[in-house]
Design a protein that fits this description.
Phage tail protein beta-alpha-beta fold; Jelly Rolls; disordered C terminus; seven-stranded antiparallel sheet; 3 domains; seven-stranded mixed sheet; about 30% strand; alpha+beta; about 300 residues
């Protein structure tokens, strides 16, 4: 109600973004609330009109407002129950990738440690990316846009191919890379319909472009190598002048063995090349040979260090 009322401000918007980022379920809840709000005919607008009337009608306003609030909460409670009771969650484990054909002919490819929730209805084909990374090949259906929700944004496409990646830890940070076609990226509260070009707050991507959100309104647009972005589908990781710290973090998205850099001076060493996604030890050994580091294991942790005192 506050977001659709006359007192909306940047502080309120920032609080909403923080709340959405706290839990992947919050995005789903907010999307459901927004959807029902729109279908109710913008109830908050009417409530705002009532608050401007004379004091003689205050009692009537309170009664009507309470009744409407109760009705809306009942609708939202029903929608929440339907959403979480449906068996429409797809997920993968630490060393697992999965290709799933959806009911409309679209296809989703899940990277390791990923989870999506499918919510199709008559008006839109909606997918919530709760965590991880997924590549979508969308079947064309102009009557039902394909919508992917990530953090506090949504990606809308009619028929195209694109990848969405949520950064760890899960929050509002994510990246969208367009492989084919066109997509629009817009605030989560907007209607599930393709927007017109030039609308403020909407980002339109062309094939080969990647848009990265790092939280709030901070975003960067670039054109990375598509082969590098999608290399995980062939079980590979491709680095091009990445830091050793960034490469280690990328390996740690996969498998149960984690790579740790215990020498702070080594974190910014540059890395390039193609490596097997499921073999972090060979990568660590390669870095040790290249830069004169030492590598050893401690349980399921692979440690790179340049200090003799760090050895067990």
């Amino acid at each position: 109600m506050e977001l659709h009322g006359p007192d909306r401000n940047v502080d309120l918007e920032a609080r909403v973004r923080r709340w959405i980022a706290e839990d992947s379920r919050h995005a789903a809840a907010f999307e459901l609330a927004t959807d029902h709000w729109q279908r109710s005919g913008n109830v908050p607008r009417h409530l705002c009109e009532w608050t401007s009337r004379s004091g003689s009608s205050r009692k009537r306003r309170r009664t009507t407002g309470a009744a409407l609030a109760g009705m809306v909460m009942l609708c939202l409670g029903f929608a929440w129950a339907v959403y979480f009771l449906r068996n429409d969650t797809l997920g993968t484990g630490p060393a697992e990738q999965r290709i799933v054909d959806l009911s409309d002919g679209s296809q989703v490819t899940l990277n390791a440690n990923s989870r999506v929730v499918i919510q199709y209805n008559e008006g839109a084909r909606k997918v919530f990316l709760a965590k991880g990374e997924a590549l979508f090949n969308v079947a064309k259906d102009r009557s039902r846009p394909f919508v992917v929700v990530a953090g506090d944004r949504k990606i809308i496409a009619l028929g195209t191919s694109f990848e969405v990646r949520r950064e760890e830890p899960a929050g509002s940070a994510f990246a969208v890379t367009l492989l084919e076609g066109h997509v629009a990226i817009e605030p989560i509260a907007w209607p599930d319909a393709p927007p017109s070009a030039g609308v403020h707050g909407v980002k339109l991507l062309n094939p080969g472009q990647r848009l990265r959100f790092t939280g709030g309104t901070v975003e960067t647009l670039d054109s990375p190598s598509i082969e590098r972005v999608t290399a995980w589908r062939q079980g590979r990781l491709i680095f091009d002048n990445a830091s050793l710290g960034e490469a280690a973090a990328e390996f740690n998205r996969y498998g149960t063995h984690k790579l740790t850099i215990e020498d702070p001076a080594a974190l910014n060493l540059r890395v390039g090349g193609v490596f097997k996604i499921n073999d972090p030890y060979s990568f660590a050994q390669s870095m040790a040979n290249t830069y004169g580091l030492r590598v050893f294991t401690r349980g399921k942790t692979i440690i790179l260090t340049g200090k003799q005192s760090d050895l067990p």
